[in-house]
Amino acid sequence: MPGNSFGHLFRLTTWGESHGPVIGCVVDGVPPGLALSETDIQPWLDRRRPGQSRFITQRKEPDKVTILSGVFAGKTTGTPVALQIANFDTRAKDYANIAGTYRPGHADFTYDRKYGLRDYRGSGRASARETAMRVAASAIARKILGKKVRIRGALIQMGPHKVSRNRWRWSQTEKNPFFCPDARTAKEWEAFLDSVRKRGSSTGAVIEVVASGVMAGLGEPVYDKLDADIAKAMMSIPAVKGVEIGAGFAAAALSGEENADEMRCKSGKTVFLTNNAGGTLGGISSGQDIVVRFVVKPTSSIRIPQQSVSAKGRNVEVATKGRHDFCVGIRAVPIGEAMLALVLADHLLRHKAQCG
After folding, report:
1. Which of helix, strand or coil describes residue 201?
2. pLDDT tens, 2-57?
3. What is the mean pLDDT of residues 92-106?
4. Stated pTM of the model
5. Residues 227, 219 contacting (CB under 8 angstroms)
6. Which of 45, 219, 271, 313 has the smallest CB count inside 10 Å?
7. What DSSP designation does 129 have?
8. Buried b (16+ CB within 10 A) or exposed e, 250-288
9. Are the CB atoms for 325 and 299 separated by under 8 Å?
């Protein structure tokens, strides 16, 4: 199975399965001399950790990270940094009833067709469990980016229910279980998701991630555009089915003069009057906020019986037991933040290598 690595100069390779003994990653291209310890990484993992509310999977994992290599006397050495997290709360028996059947909307069918076998225990590599290592690696990426760059994510739509931009407060994202910037909408989501959970179903979501303080000049103008790499990063997150930068699909309804981000010179600096481009022009960062949104589909593992087929070619009904996210978009917020951090750190190192 190729394709387990992401990035160029700053490169992440993850390994391990949802119900294996451990998951881990190797981060290559880390500059030497960065102060790094487990306590720098753990807070980011804690934001993604399962079992923290009734609205997400009840799998109880401490997600305690261990640094295995690449750090000496509290600082990175320039050699690969290896990180590891043990899996504790695995219950393979929960998946026994789907070992020979395919969940509609899931990777079960395609994994079987491609490899001739699949790890049905929590979906193996197809599980979002793998993303814990992306979040762990993003702590190193943030060290490279420095304190001037701030990356924040928010859940802005759950099912048909959207937040109000007029009530947007970033501080609210840390005060509710949904990373919601709108306190009133967060309360409404509680009742909505409770009803989804009781029905044994799931719902989709939209996440917005914003990076502030990013310097102008990051990205390449053709195939390695900054926004192209951001889009790939977000699409690599399990269950993501769409990505937009800046105004995104809404730009189709704008005129040229409406969409153009006009510029003025103030106190010797170029200032943009709007940010429909989402912080990139021609694939290169403009110095404005990087704004990306992505859509997460409803979780495929639901308790409501659905029509499917078995591995032996028989028509069956599938109802999934076990512990699953009723809205996988909730925990996708810190994962989206992590992927944006990985892309920006990689492009910062590439920019310095070429342009000094």
Report:
1. coil
2. 899 999 999 999 999 888 889 999 999 999 999 999 999 999 999 988 667 676 76
3. 80
4. 0.94
5. yes
6. 313
7. G
8. eeeeeeeeebebeeeeeeeeeebeeebbbbbbebbbbbb
9. yes
